[in-house]
């Protein structure tokens, strides 16, 4: 359950990066066409930083889920014997 939760959280964070990038692009367009240029510039910078931050956090959580999976597989007794029995051709 913990691995599934971490994977889902990492995927959610990665998927949040696209809206942040689109918001950053919209703020850049607003800077070129709007009246509130300083606010739009600050918003564009913050949205771009948020996009890269959630991408990095998503990758970190994906790595944690992979490491946790490997740790669990290492500590399960007789997991190698189970895998060898399943991969053997039927007699």
Task: Name some characteristics of this structure.
single chain, 91 residues, mainly alpha, 3 helices, 0% strand
How would you summarize this macromolecular structure in one to three sentences?
With 91 residues, the protein is mainly alpha-helical. The chain contains 3 helices and no strands.
What coarse outline follows from CA principal-axis ratios? rod-shaped
Number of domains: 1
Strand content: under 5%
What's the tally of helices? 3
Q: Tell me the major beta sheet.
A: none
What pattern of helices and strands is seen along the backbone? HHH
Termini gap:
36 Å
**Class by SSE composition:** mainly alpha
Return the average pLDDT rounded to an integer. 87
**Which runs of at least 5 residues are low in confidence (pLDDT < 50)?**
none
What percent of the residues sit in helical stretches (DSSP H or I)? Answer: over 70%
Number of β-strand runs: 0
User: How large is the radius of gyration?
Assistant: 22 Å
Describe this structure in words.
By secondary structure, the chain is an all-alpha fold. The chain has one domain (2-87). Helices cover 88% and strands 0% of the residues. The protein has 3 helices and no strands. It has helices spanning 2-33, 37-75, 79-87. Helix 1 runs antiparallel to helix 2. It is rod-shaped and about 70 Å long. The protein starts with a helix and ends with a helix. The mean pLDDT is 87.
List the helices and strands and how they pair.
Layout: H1 2-33, H2 37-75, H3 79-87
Helix pairs in contact: 1-2
């Amino acid at each position: 359950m913990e691995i599934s939760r971490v994977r889902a959280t990492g995927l959610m964070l990665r998927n949040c990066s696209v809206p942040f990038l689109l918001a950053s692009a919209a703020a850049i367009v607003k800077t070129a066409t709007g009246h509130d240029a300083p606010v739009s510039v600050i918003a564009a910078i913050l949205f771009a930083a948020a996009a890269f931050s959630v991408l990095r956090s998503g990758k970190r959580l994906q790595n944690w889920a992979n490491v946790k999976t490997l740790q669990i597989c290492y500590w399960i007794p007789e997991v190698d014997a189970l895998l060898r029995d399943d991969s053997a051709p039927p007699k």
